[in-house]
Design brief:
The protein has about 260 residues and is an alpha+beta fold. Helices cover about 30% and strands about 25% of the residues. A nine-stranded antiparallel β-sheet has the order 2-9-3-4-1-5-6-7-8, sandwiched between helices. The two termini are about 35 Å apart.
Amino acid sequence: MKKLFYGIGYVIAALLYSAGLLNPTTSVAQEVAIEHPLQLSSEPDLPTPFGYKSVWFAVKTEDTSAVFSAFNLQSEQPANWASGIKFLYDFDSHFKRGEKPVFVSPPVSGWTLILAGLNFSADSSEKTEYLRNLLNRLSKEFGEAQYFGSYRVVGYVAWYRSISGSIERGFSFADGTLFANEGNTSEAELEIGYFDMSGMDEANIWETLMEAEEEGEYFFDEEDPMKIAELWSVNPLSVDQEKDLEPSIGLVGFHID
């Protein structure tokens, strides 16, 4: 019955919006007297692992509210780990209209994580430039900001690191296309077995990849961003194993394009 109720609510909302009766500058939650079918919970819980089929940020601060504000998010709502992360994956795309759902985590080992589903992907020159500016702005305020992406379906892997307002390392590769290879290959990349990609263009990288495959070596695996994240900040796949964990809550909001 509840699903039927929400389904009817969605249809009504869609009709109102198409008829121009909803204000496009106001969130759906404020205009329609229904809630998203997933009920956000504010009951503190322990971290929930994530990482596959998603992008996320790591900001060096324990101030969740400050990160929420710095990200220019709207419609703030408290949410624990389980419901906040599930919200991102279950969010109904019909109501996005430029609204990107974001979960800002409680502090984990001195870092605040920002999970953004598959939004903020660095798979075009325009998106890459936007990401660079966002990371530099965050690192100016908090000292360091990182970005990671992993999506096996399109072979998307990405890792960026900005310190004190400047990109130190930026790499993004998807669907056989190199979108960024900025800065020198980091020690973390070399430690997990990557070759030195410093200064390489797409042709050079592909040539090296083909030679490596002939020798049985393969790169750009979906778990590689998590491995680098573990060396730079926090591995989301093992976030529940970090030390001194206490049940806590984060914040859910929307980034408006």
